[in-house]
Design goal:
This protein is mostly helical. Among the domains are: about 30 residues, no CATH class; about 30 residues, no CATH class. Strands 1-2 form a two-stranded antiparallel ribbon. The longest helix has 14 residues.
Length: about 130
């Protein structure tokens, strides 16, 4: 008595190739389509230096009327005026910040912003001197 293969020999047989035409998805084809669409809208776009990217898709969707020029990777995905930074803090202070954020139903960055604003309020801070390299 031989066993019959119930599902066939290829367990991935049910997966179908979703690509319609290889040439449609080739790099050259995609680049030519992009250049055609960019040539049509070239008069309405602003030029941006090549070493800087423009923040086109803010978190709330859409594009901005005055695109923000991103100068560092730490600004990617953040609202205007914000930058991503890493600091070393004492463990007990971090625990207190997290507890405050939890009990006040705030984000940790909101608690940090409030603490820094309170610390800097009323202080005269001179700008840093220019770096000579």
């Amino acid at each position: 008595m031989a066993k019959e293969a119930r599902l066939g020999t290829d367990p991935l047989q049910w997966i179908q190739d979703s690509r319609q035409n290889e040439s449609e998805f080739s790099t050259q084809s995609v680049l030519s389509k992009q250049s055609i669409s960019s040539n049509q809208d070239i008069s309405s776009k602003q030029s941006v230096p090549s070493n800087q990217s423009v923040h086109q898709n803010p978190q709330n969707g859409g594009t901005r009327r005055n695109p923000r020029v991103i100068t560092t990777a730490s600004q990617e995905g953040l609202p205007d005026g914000w930058i991503r930074a890493t600091f070393i803090v004492q463990e007990h202070q971090l625990a207190q910040i997290k507890a405050l954020a939890y009990w006040e139903r705030k984000q940790i960055k909101e608690v940090i912003t409030e603490a820094l604003s309170a610390y800097l309020a009323g202080r005269q801070v001179e700008p840093l001197p220019e770096h000579r390299g």
